[in-house]
Amino acid sequence: MTKYSPIDMPRQPGDSLLERASDLYDFGSVLRGTGMPPIVPQVVEPTAVVDDAPASIAPQWYGPMHSVDREGLEAAGFVLPDGPVSGISEEFRIVKRQLLSALRGDNGEDALALGNRILVCSAHPGEGKTFCAVNLALSMAAEKDIEVLLVDADFAKPSIVSTLGLPDGPGFMDVLADPSLPIEECVLRTEFASLAVLPAGNGTNNDTEYLASARTRQLLDTLTAGNPNRILLFDSPPLLAASPAAVLAGHVGQALMVVRADSTTENALRDAANLLKACAHVQLLLNGVKFSASGRRFGNYYGKAA
Fold first, then answer.
1. Residues 279, 135: Cα–Cα separation, whole Å
2. Is this prediction's pTM over 0.90?
3. Using one digit for the tens of pLDDT, what is the confidence trace for 108-131?
4. Strand pairing category for 254-260 and 195-198
5. How far is Cα 165 from Cα 69, in angstroms, rounded to an integer?
């Protein structure tokens, strides 16, 4: 299995990767354990409807199309939307199905408020957070009825554009700091029609304060206005290393916490989970496991070792 490939855990056939991960970490008890504050679902206030008022429309990207570094991505173990099926691509298909099901309210459940905003985070650096965020975005870009905006929100150490081989430039923080800068001018279109990228932009000494402002909420509302099929996927800073991640949790409907199997401690997981309490729906992705206890290996089925 690829160095950063998520784990196969011993559960019944058909169980999801996130469910299998919970065999090792009792994530629910971490979020709801003794002394932990309860997770408070976000309340979305209804918007007043004015007769004859034009409906809000999400901005469209009009910049030039950029090619991604296909060779570099494949060499580093990333999936491609139009690439061959492999073990790692199947693993991320399982992950995205869980997130999309929660967004749409499949299986008789209520659809999540702000479920089309997904935060990918981790407790510490080096746990595979960006690897998982990029792979998840690439996997989602293969869907036929959604579009993905991958947002680099790790302002101190941005790496999304370099990972994909895209040109850097103004981005998310620049738009927050300068209301006159249209976000359409910062978003990078890629060769995959369903995938666009918003760079981190230039960091400031007040990144957390900008994220906590009303402008951030208004901007994110604008990005999805009238376009329920647009997914905003955020690659955040590590929760225990920088404060912006906890603020971002209040702007999203789903959070995916990446846990490194061989290094993330229970105390770190507990502390990081506490910082996600503003997000109503948190799931766990176990990463960095080198064997499959269940014997399930997608790669063998597709003729390639996982």
1. 22
2. no
3. 677 888 999 999 999 999 999 999
4. unpaired
5. 5
- Output the six-digit token pair for 92: 């991320």
| Burial state string for 144-176 with b = 16 or more CB within 10 A and e = fewer than 16 | eebbbbbbbbbbeebbbbebbebeeebbbbbbb
What is the DSSP secondary-structure string of 123-152?
Answer: SSTTSSHHHHHHHHHHHHTT-SS-EEEEEE
Q: pLDDT tens-digit profile of 222-277? A: 998 888 899 999 999 999 999 999 999 999 999 999 998 888 888 999 999 999 99
Fold classification of 59-84+113-288 (topology level): Rossmann fold (3.40.50)
Half-sphere exposure of 138 (CA within 13 A, CB side): 29
